[in-house]
Amino acid sequence: AAIEGSIPPPLVDSPKCPRCSLVGICLPDETERLQKRRASQRWIQKTLFDVAEYGISSEPPEEVSEPVRRLVPARDDRRPLYLDTQGLYVGKSGRVLKVKEGGRVVQEVRVADINLVNLMGNIQISTQAVQMLCSEDIPIAYFSQGGWFYGITEGMGLRNVMLRREQFRLAEVAWFCRRFASALVAGKIRNCRTMLQRNHKEPPRKVLSLLKCFEEDARRASDLETLRGIEGTAARVYFEHFAGMIKVGDRDESIVGVASDLPSGDAGDVENGSDQGGNGFMHTFDFRGRNRRPPKDPTNALLSLAYSMLVKDLTIVCRAVGLDPHLGLYHQMRPGRPSLALDLMEPFRPVIADSAVLSAINTRMVTEKHFVRTGTAVSLTPKGRKQFYRAYEQRMDTLVTHPVFGYRVNYRRIIEIQVRLLGRFLMAEIPSYSVFTTR
Ligand code: SF4
Q: Do 181 and 122 share a structural domain?
């Protein structure tokens, strides 16, 4: 196998696997389960051009009769590090990151305790710290102060050239892209519907039926243009009823916003109530629909930040698996756009990003005081952003049952498993790929 340059298939039910350091990459039991699933059909992706049935699905999986052994830990003990205070400097000493403000060390973080460094805005990092993080395979993600995702620094990533070759080949196959995109969009609509069912005060039956129809339409869409139309209409319907999942009062809890001429770095003052009176802008979580670039109300500001966080996480996982995050199968290529990460985040938008936003609002982790307005744009204060990162990480850390394998792992792990399985699917090592949907 080494001479051929191919990776041998995983062992079957081997006692070696639970102790193997590669188990999280290899996914031996998951691969075997998926290989068995359609073994009777003798389906091989490379001969797909001859067959009508091919294994990309957003259909809800059958009940899991026997869960797969969970050989990977349910969650990673390491945590992402978020640095948000403007003007910080990150250096290192030994295997410890030293975070300084005005020359004074304000935080020390052991490299062994983190799996990602998020630099939000104007934060400097030393070459020595970058080199150490690269050698430890800990990515550094760069954002604007407002949460715009610029990019990543990481070690010698993108090692699996064979996988990328298949990705590039299949990205040229129009029907494959259409089928894959249909499954992603159908899965996203399904998850939106589940969100409304679970969280809406009174989920309107008509809307649930409508979303079910859109899900079916997405599965059957004949081309990407039609699919985009269905996705857009479904998203509009979903966001028209998003407000029904916000469970904070909008009268007595609405708070006057902050003066627009506050320097952004000082906006944290609003936490102390200095915004009372402000220049008369009212912030509430009264959500009327999605808007962006810039977001014009607090809920949209949170949604934009949440999607930015999520696309960053998908980009990192794509690169870790060896996929090119910029070559999408649904989203079109555009310079600097992580199209594949945007593709893969579709079914996760409602269950991770929207859910984190709702949780931040409904549990009052983020309140109306945590926003500032500049012109028509509404953005979070530094304290508000910190609170939202907590809400987002809590959601990422929530345990959920994998619909195909029946074991419980957190969302961060689910994302990684899904992207690794996509890699195996593109390499024709497993016959089917199921988009993640929740019940
Ligand atoms: S996890 Fe994979 S690499 Fe490790 S022993 Fe099992 S089959 Fe081999």
A: no
CATH number for the domain that contains residue 132: 3.100.10.20
16 lines ligand 1 (CB under 6 A): yes
The CB of 20 under 6 Å from ligand 1? The reply is yes
- Domain with 90, as residue range(s), is 79-153
- Residue 284: what pLDDT? 75
**pLDDT < 50: residue spans in the chain:** 40-53, 250-280
149, 178: one domain: no
Going from the Cα of 33 to the center of ligand 1, the distance in angstroms, rounded, reads: 15
Mutate to test the pocket of ligand 1, among 20, 25, 31, 420 (most ligand atoms within 8 A of CB): 20
Cβ–Cβ < 8 Å for 159, 319: no
Cβ atoms of 308 and 406 closer than 8 Å: no
**Looking at the chain, how many residues does it have?**
439
19 assigned to some structural domain? no
| 203-250 pLDDT tens trace | 889 999 999 999 999 998 888 999 999 999 999 999 999 989 988 864
pLDDT tens for residues 334-346? Answer: 887 899 999 999 9
User: Could you tell me if residue 93 is inside a domain?
Assistant: yes
Omega within 30 of 0 (cis) for the link into 294: yes
Looking at residue 279, its pLDDT comes to 40
Q: Which CATH number is 409's domain given?
A: 1.20.120.920
What pLDDT score does 307 carry?
95
Counting ligand 1 atoms within 8 A of each CB, the residue from 13, 21, 22, 27 with the most, and so the one to mutate, is 22
Indicate whether 394 and 368 sit together in one domain: yes
| Distance of alpha carbon 153 from alpha carbon 131, whole angstroms | 10
Structural domain count, the chain: 2
3-state SS of 340-391 is HHHHHHCCHHHHHHHHHHHHHHHCCCCCHHHEEEECCEEEECHHHHHHHHHH
Q: Verify whether ligand 1 is closer than 6 Å to residue 71 (CB atom).
A: no
